[in-house]
Amino acid sequence: MKMRKTAVWQVVAILMITMLVIAGCGKNNEAGSGGSKSFTIGFANINDVYPYCVKVRDYIKEIAGAEGIKVVVANAAGDVKQQNDQIDNFIVQKVNMIAAISGDLDGSVPAVENSLNAKIPYVSLLTHVNTDGYVYVGSENKQAGEVQGEYLAKVLPENAKVLYMTGQTNDQQYIDRKAGLTAKLFDVRKDVQLLAEQSSDNQKDKGMSLTEDWLQSYGKFDAIIAQNDDSALGAVEALKAANRLDGVIVIGIDGSDDALASIEAGEMTMTVFQDAKSQAQAIVDLAKKLRDGAEASSLENINIPFKAITKENLSEAK
């Protein structure tokens, strides 16, 4: 009888140990699967022709890769409809989050709505869209214009004459950057004369050709203000070719590698630095929150301030 009781207790003990081991393994597997849960970002670039956009994209891929997050990319080559189609393709692929440099204030609305209807969070990088429900990551474009204006208001001579090359005039980025510049330069320095404003489509070759035209039209001017670095670099090339760079202030926006090199060489005067790496980190941080179980509705916009970069503080942008 005593031997039978001992055997029964031995069986019970073995069963209890087995159950504890199974439970423990279950917890470990659950933790392991949670930590290595697959997550994919669909990144839709508006145009790979812009070095800054490519820089942000590459940082996203690098930082996300280090976190075990996959990134699939698309390039719309400046075509908003194509970008919308590419985002629809991301939806079909069932990515976990869409991040896009949205191509148009109104034209990108379908991309946002389709993503949200598919229960996929949409993050717009650098640009806003005329709808609700998405998360914005970037630097506020009005502030970029303000930084340009504040700098020029200090350094321009009395009765200065300036030229302004811009992005596409139907772009909210153009509107905001011009508003900031106007508020901090033209509204403050009434003596400063704007000789001309024209779109260079934020492209280097068009910035160069536009500056060549201005050199023919205007005998003297004190500054060329560009809404991005590529256009400013084009202006520098045209001024150098005409032996007119000395005495002309050339400023841009972005803090691209080429712009920083130009400032170091004493060609461009200033750029308004937007931090591509911090913007990319913010995108990945949002993805990590979603991967770890956060609700999309809990995500908040992330603003990363601009900064004026000249030769004197060049190291702050590197």
TrEMBL record:
Originating species: Cohnella faecalis
Alphabetical list of SUPFAM superfamilies matching this protein: Periplasmic binding protein-like I
InterPro entries: Peripla_BP_I, SBP_2_dom
Family as reported in the entry's similarity comment: Belongs to the bacterial solute-binding protein 2 family.
GO terms, molecular function: carbohydrate binding
Name this protein carries in UniProt: Sugar ABC transporter substrate-binding protein
Primary localization class, coarse: other
CDD domains linked to this entry: PBP1_ABC_sugar_binding-like (cd01536)
Keywords: Signal
Domain Periplasmic binding protein: 41-294
Subcellular location: Cell envelope
Gene Ontology cellular component list: cell envelope
Taxonomic superkingdom: Bacteria
